[in-house]
Design brief:
single chain, Cytidine Deaminase, domain 2, binds tetrahydrodeoxyuridine
């Protein structure tokens, strides 16, 4: 028996003004997307903006349903839009932001487990890391160099 360390590293920015200007732009697009979220039940709006290698920016936001489990997260709306409209085009960066009409979201909101799994499929296929930046409505932004750094011991097609 031996113990191993599973290490994830991230960069933390104090606020949006610290981000490189191209990432600020992407985060502003994510905010735009967040403002169009359809989240009448949770009141929790999430926006995602993805930069593709062809310079297209793909937006997604959460879409809820009165039949709650039928809703969908912002990140998966965005990645499936990208996969559907631009199959095979690599995703370079993903910016995520979340806000709530119930309380101020002042800490970074990372993608949920199901979104991480879905995004990992694309990162693995494109053989290039996707930089991920995530924040709340205000406050710090976390950056990870890849999706897989957020998903240790993940399941992938090699098991099938
Ligand atoms: N949500 C996202 O859009 N992305 C996440 O990664 C976490 C959660 C949405 C789903 C639901 O509409 C609302 O946030 C509350 O869970």
């Amino acid at each position: 028996m031996k113990k191993i360390d599973v290490v994830a590293s991230a960069t933390v920015y104090d606020d949006v003004s610290e981000l490189p200007s191209n990432v600020q732009l992407l985060m502003n697009k994510a905010i735009e997307a967040r403002n169009n979220a359809y989240a009448p039940y949770s009141k929790f709006s999430v926006g995602a903006a993805m930069l593709l290698e062809n310079n297209q920016i793909i937006l997604g936001n959460n879409q809820e349903s009165a039949a709650y489990p039928s809703g969908m997260c912002a990140e998966r709306v965005a990645i499936w839009k990208a996969g559907s409209d631009f199959p095979g085009v690599k995703v370079k960066q993903l910016a995520i932001t979340a806000s709530s009409s119930i309380s101020k979201v002042d800490r970074p909101v990372g993608p949920c487990g199901a979104c991480r799994q879905t995004l990992s499929e694309y990162e693995i296929n494109q053989k290039e890391p996707i930089e991920i930046y995530f924040m709340g409505e205000v406050g710090k932004i976390v950056k990870t160099e890849s999706l897989l750094s957020l998903l240790p011991f993940s399941f992938d097609s090699t098991y099938l």
